[in-house]
Amino acid sequence: MKKKFTANVEKTDTGFSAYVDGLNVFSTGSTMTELAMNLVEALELNFDDSKDVINENDIDLVIDLQQFFKYYRVLNAKYLADRIGMNPTLLSQYVQGKKKVSRKQTDKILTGVQEIGKELAELNFTS
Length: 127
Known about the structure:
Elements: E1 5-12, E2 15-20, E3 26-29, H1 32-46, E4 59-63, H2 65-71, H3 77-84, H4 88-95, H5 103-121
Parallel strand pairs: 1-4
Antiparallel strand pairs: 1-2, 2-3
Helix pairs in contact: 3-4, 3-5
């Protein structure tokens, strides 16, 4: 069975960097897409003797809330908190790194962000 890799992503001044849990594998990229492609290459180099083919679907890119809201500044944390039924002060503490977010709360936030993304993707503008 093929292994899934978790890569912890951080925002940098030039784009993104990531390291893979439990391995001496890291990479950078100017976009998330480039980072994912570069991580595939880094993992393939790490497992050079393996016959398994590694692709982007084998990598879970994980970005913490501080990094997420720093990169996606277009998202308003207070509005998101109201929308998902979370205390805005609590979400703000998560975003600022003052409080550690639980897995359950992370899932709630992610679901809210994905719902907004889906709604935006379905919009059409008329001119």
